[in-house]
Design a protein that fits this description.
This protein has about 120 residues and is an alpha+beta fold. The protein folds into two domains: about 40 residues; about 50 residues, SH3 type barrels (Roll). Helix content is about 50%, strand content about 25%. The chain is built from three helices and five strands; from the N terminus they run ααβββββα. It has a five-stranded antiparallel beta sheet. The longest helix has about 40 residues.
Length: about 120
């Protein structure tokens, strides 16, 4: 039994200082990758937020928009944080939404491909 313990101890013991440094390299590499991914995700989120704010600021009367609920309507008026949409032409039905409920301006989607980056 003592011989078996001695063999296990000899096979698991580090053989030199370079082995310890090589063991830290994959950990440092993974840590660097995680930090890079977090910073990348953060910058992506900020960019999307800036694009949304720009869209909210350029919404004007008679723009056709799509809400996050799937409702398509024409903007009748824009206030501080809400928009009034006309959703039915025949009955003149109007609905009030928060600006943040607008997913996209439909006229922007129909812009020529050369306008987009």
């Amino acid at each position: 039994m003592d011989v078996l313990m001695l063999l296990i101890a000899q096979t698991t013991a580090p053989t030199g200082g370079s082995q310890g440094a090589m063991g830290l390299f994959p950990i440092a590499l993974m840590l660097g990758l995680v930090v890079f991914m977090l910073l990348s995700a953060r910058s992506q989120k900020k960019r999307e937020q800036r694009e949304k704010e720009a869209m909210y600021s350029r919404m004007t009367r008679n723009d056709r928009v799509l809400t996050i609920g799937g409702i398509i309507g024409t903007i009748m008026s824009v206030k501080d944080n809400e928009v009034v949409l006309k959703v039915d032409e025949t009955t003149n039905t109007k609905m009030t939404f928060l600006k943040t409920s607008v997913q996209r301006i439909l006229a922007d989607d129909q812009a020529s491909p050369s306008d987009k980056r």
